[in-house]
Amino acid sequence: MSEQKFMEWKLPCNLFKINHTEYVYQVTSIEDRQYRSVIYRNHIGDGGGKEKLATGTLAAVSEQYEMIAYWEENRLVVMDLSTKEPYILGSFVRPGQVNFCSSAKKLVFTAAEEFAMEPEGVPQWETVQWIDRTKFKSDATGIYDGRYMQVFAADLEKGGIRRITTKKLDYANPAFLDENTIICTAVPKDMDVSDDAYFQMINLETGEARWAPGAGGPIHELDVSPDGSYAAVLTHDNAYWEATNYQLYKFYPKSGKLECLSSALDRSLGNYVVNDTGLKTDAAVFHFSEDGKKIYANVTDGFVTDLYEFSEEGVRRITDGSRVIMEYAMMGQDILMISSQVNTPASILRYHHGSYQILGRQDNKLEDVEAEEFAYPGHNGEAFQGYIFYPKEKPLKGIVLDIHGGPHYCHGLAYSLDVHILAEAGYAAVYANPAGSQGKGEEIARASYHDWGGKDYGDLLSCVEQVRKIPLFSALPWAVKGGSYGGYMVNWIIGHTDFFTCAISERSTCNRYSQAGTSDCAFRYGKFEFEDFPWEHCDSYMERSPITYVKNVNTPVLLIHGDHDMNCPISQSEEWYSALRLENKEVYFARFKGQNHGFAVKGDPACREERYRLLVWWLDRYMKKE
Predict the structure, then answer these.
(1) Cβ pair 253, 212 in contact under 8 A
(2) For residues 297 and 307, what is the distance between their CA atoms, to the nearest angstrom?
(3) In the chain, which stretches have pLDDT less than 50?
(4) Chain mean position to CA 503
């Protein structure tokens, strides 16, 4: 990929409606090898145009569209859209979600607040950092520093900011039920190892607070209906951990009642299509109709994401299954959206009764690719959908099986930098969504239960065999590539077959026993993905660990890892590299300094560019025809 094409990359995101003819959005670009975010207002119609408002990350728009709130680095800024005068409320650590009350006189937001470190009774020395949580590190924030995500309230009329939560809990999703009452969520018991999120209602004047139980699992998104009578939430009962379908619920604060609106739809609400451009992944959002009687949410179905309407009358799909919808806002009977397609990185669209009006588009793209659909036999006897992407004009050097992360995410028909970079270099890429993937219902999502390297492995090999039957691709060499869970699968595959010419394993794991105690999240996997805690089922964990099969590896493998990765710690690639070297296998290990788990998507731009070059170099090394 040319340096110019990537280093001038720009993407629209954080989309909000202002009224029926205006909207505000954020564009994140790469300039001078640094990220920069600019907030714009766009006027639709005659005499319209784009107007720059500020530099920062757009966070919220008031209900009557007169004010916006945004983060400028760690500073929370409010702007009156009539005067465009910014007002800095203050600086905060790890700034988060923001919401205005209906009159726009107050707002609430989350930020990190430091509490006294525990355990109590221990000496406090300058060089000693005590750890008092099971979840003592996070990929986004590093080693735990005694801070918890708290809720703050700002009075925009009288001035002043105060913290309104008091417990050592991580709060989220603050919103106003009325001018003086807010609702937020937290996990009040065993929060490091539990997903059982509760609602908390707090009176801002009296400080009175009360809790109400949720559905039993995490609460991903919350917003209050226009009349304040209920809160809509995306949540689930955690029956199958991350493989459980997220459902749309109404929560009634007065009674504590939860009412599910989406139980008839066997899909997990939200966008699960992995994305490597920088657009939001897992953007599970919803919006109310103007009267609050209908709710609109995005749903992943196969390789696309559509918008659905939920109401007392039932569930209805709105859009046409032609794209992956990342973000959206309702504009009367129309829908304003940011979406992505195979050959279009990102577009801002206005959708009206089946037709799309382009309002803005990311035009800085790479060479177009063909997307050919095929079907292959899945583990349950049903036909699974797959896609192969290849350059239109160039001769092919080989094929790359690209395995997504998760496992409870999926590939989709959105623009992929990796796919287009491989195409420019003369390689095809194959997408499959095997057992464990989202987008095909809860039964398939939970098919990886205690079975990593089982049904998913069989599905991937079945996909490969089907592509090999297509004449255009039958004689080409294959490589296998994947990151995170996809990297685990790469390590597993090369220990069980010599079919692939070479392999690329990114931010991967090889030893599920050791990862359970060194990852910021893997210690929780035993509740579903594996068999409880590793020390109680040692044989099971090691049976599902690629390092157990290191002697069987004969495929040259490139390991790519950020040394600040806390989801899949770099120690996993270190273990894998050492084992492969000690067994005299062909392995190369590329460390990226200062990069965390998501660096391939949102890491340092220079590191992202070098990773692209590394992928092509490795494939050319083993697959380029003489």
Answers:
(1) yes
(2) 6
(3) 1, 3, 626
(4) 25
Phi then psi for residue 222, to 5 deg, are -145, 140
Burial of 539 (0-12, 13-18, 19+ CB in 10 A): exposed
Distance CA 245, CA 86 (A): 41
To the question of pTM greater than 0.85 for the whole model, the response is yes
> Which tokens go with 537?
């089922």
In 3D space, the residue among 512, 402, 375, 504 whose CA is nearest the CA of residue 448 turns out to be: 512
pLDDT at 3: 46
> Cis peptide before 569, with omega less than 30 degrees from 0?
no
Q: From the CB of residue 457, how many other CB atoms can be counted at a distance below 10 Å?
A: 19
**Rounded-to-integer distance, Cα 124 and Cα 70, Å:** 37
Which tokens belong to 142? 């590093």
333 DSSP assignment: T
Under 8 Å CB-to-CB from 618, ≥6 apart: which residues?
Answer: 502, 504, 558, 588
Q: Do the beta carbons of residue 236 and residue 242 sit within 8 Å?
A: no
CA distance 535 to 625: 48
SS3 418: helix
Count of residues making up the chain:
626
Q: 146 CB contacts (<8 Å, ≥6 apart)?
A: 114, 115, 116, 117
* Residue recorded with tokens 């994305």: 275
Phi then psi dihedrals of residue 565, to 5 deg: -70, 125
Q: What amino acid occupies position 604?
A: D
* SS3 track for 68-102: EEEEECCEEEEEECCCCEEEEEEECECCCCEEECC
Q: Which of 579, 568, 556 is nearest to 521 (CA)?
A: 568
